[in-house]
Design a protein that fits this description.
Blueprint: E1 13-16, E2 22-23, E3 28-35, E4 39-60, E5 63-72, E6 78-88, E7 96-103, H1 115-119, E8 137-140, E9 146-160, E10 164-171, E11 173-174, E12 187-197, H2 212-220, E13 227-237, E14 239-241, E15 251-256, E16 272-289, E17 296-305, E18 310-311, E19 330-331, H3 332-335, H4 343-349, E20 361-362, E21 366-380, E22 383-396, E23 451-456
Parallel strand pairs: 2-11, 14-22
Antiparallel strand pairs: 1-3, 3-7, 4-5, 4-6, 4-9, 8-9, 9-10, 12-13, 12-23, 13-15, 15-19, 16-17, 16-18, 16-21, 20-21, 21-22
Length: 472
């Protein structure tokens, strides 16, 4: 089930204005079809069409199950650009080009749904009416027996009388914005209880000062070893949004448990330092394929490590963790500049068929969800305690910078008047009316560990749901 192979040659090529890398649903794609090889033909017919599809495949032994959905129907989004004789002389950089504009729909075309879905909606993750056009996607399991992709492309064909047909295929990447302003981040607090034991917890302790008799007593008598009890508080996000300029927050604080601490350590301020912060986002992909009477579902996952995650070295500046309930938690995500991958990384910096970080979405036969997983290690004196993070999170698409309807996603540097490109004039708009307007104001030794409490500390909690609005 391969993706559509791009095609481009001197015989025919599709070029996009400004070499645009991505678009939004509803955008106008401006481009041209170019033929650069010498040609003399009495009649040529040139067409250009827009296509979109979502496909899934599950292999079980010799049996394969597939899910096929047409998102944009090529025949309904087809234009004839030229019909007539063509003559291109050899050399001197001669060529012919034909401009075109294609408008991306905002929703998938439900008129070409498989018969199985029309008869029973259980073959689709979502009701098949009014499904928003999903973003481009590609993913394959490590065992290569499960895969799914969502692709969009422009296909140009030139039929040359008695000379055959030339074809060009240009992929178009689709991104979706989350409606409205940036999502307010939700944070959760996890408390993990730990105890550590050792004479090094006692202020001024030095093993070199002990006599041989005292060392043997320490070796065979654990009752006299001081014990320090503490709660490691970890705040971590439950919602993240692509392309947010801020870091990923992870906040830490150590709170002593004096009632479970040895008397010699009562009210002793302990030095607590960050040793390791290893955080990743797991992407869980679920695909659905057709079956005889029931659909076949399969899932797999891949991990994207947050940039800045690492084990601190001795050469690094120590990161001290606040001690005490009254101390302000430290945002170690800010200290280490913890960042997640952005849509720009996916558009420009990586091959599109590798495992990447995508926002959460659900369409007919493909669904993604996410988990935040990681390990936090804190060094208390010379002892190490560990806390783990393993919670579902929601990864939202970037915020809509216009906070309104989508606009054409075209490189700003390419917005230069050129006779090569033909752009439709802007629609006429009536001047705004100011009648009836009123003045407005602006206005978070591993001998004992247990999770004690998980609570939300966000001042503005988002409503729970299955996904971001408009991201079916």
């Amino acid at each position: 089930m391969p993706q559509t192979i791009p095609q481009s040659s001197s015989a025919l090529a599709v070029e996009l204005e400004g070499d645009a890398l991505w678009y939004q649903p509803g955008d106008v794609i401006i481009g041209r079809v170019v033929r650069r090889c010498s040609t003399e033909c009495s009649r040529a017919i040139l067409t250009v069409s827009l296509h979109g599809r979502a496909k899934s495949k599950l292999s079980e032994g010799d049996t394969q199950y597939r899910g096929r959905y047409t998102l944009i129907v090529g025949l309904r989004n087809k234009q004839q650009l030229f019909n007539g004789p063509i003559h291109i002389t050899e050399g001197s950089g001669s060529y012919e080009s034909w401009p075109f504009t294609l408008t991306l729909p905002t929703h998938a075309d439900s008129r070409c749904l498989p018969v199985s879905v029309k008869e029973n909606e259980k073959f689709s993750f979502v009701p098949f009416n009014d499904v928003p056009l999903p973003a481009s996607f590609a993913g394959t399991s490590s065992s290569q027996n499960k895969e799914g992709f969502i692709e969009y492309y422009i296909r140009a064909e030139m039929q040359l009388h008695a000379q055959g047909t030339a074809t060009a295929v240009k992929h178009v990447r689709i991104e979706r914005y989350n409606p409205g302003p940036p999502v307010q981040m939700r944070m959760n607090l996890s408390n993990t209880f730990h105890t550590v034991q050792g004479d090094s917890l006692v202020p001024g302790y030095s093993r070199d000062q002990l006599t041989t008799s005292q060392r043997f007593k320490k070796m065979f008598s654990s009752a006299s070893v001081p014990k320090f009890a503490l709660t490691l508080q970890t705040w971590f996000p439950m919602t993240l949004q692509m392309d947010q300029s801020s870091h990923v927050p992870i906040k830490l604080r150590v709170v002593p448990k004096w009632d479970k601490t040895s008397e010699i350590l009562q009210n002793v301020l302990q030095t607590c330092r960050l040793k390791t912060l290893d955080i990743e986002i797991q992407t869980l992909v679920t695909i659905r394929c057709d079956g005889t009477s029931n659909p076949h579902d399969a899932e797999w996952k891949w991990c994207t490590k947050l940039q800045g995650s690492r084990q601190l070295l001795q050469s690094d500046t120590p990161v001290e963790i606040p001690f005490g309930r009254d101390s302000e938690p430290l945002d170690v995500g800010e200290v280490l500049n913890l960042q997640m991958k952005t849509t720009k990384d996916r558009r420009e910096g990586m091959t599109f068929n590798v495992q990447q970080l995508y926002p959460e979405f659900t369409t007919y036969n493909i669904r993604t969800k996410h988990r935040l997983k990681g390990t936090v290690e804190i060094k208390v004196a010379d002892k190490v305690i560990t806390a783990e993070i393993n919670r579902d999170i929601k990864v939202f698409p970037p915020a809509d910078p216009t906070c309104g309807p989508p606009v054409p996603a075209i490189d700003q540097n390419a917005r230069v008047a050129s006779s090569t490109w033909i752009q439709p004039p802007p629609p006429y708009e009536e001047p705004p009316s100011f009648e009836g307007l009123h003045a407005m104001d602006q206005h978070g030794s591993e001998s004992h560990r247990r999770v004690e409490k998980v609570e939300s500390i966000s001042s503005a909690v988002l409503p729970d749901g299955t996904g971001a609005p408009g991201l079916q």
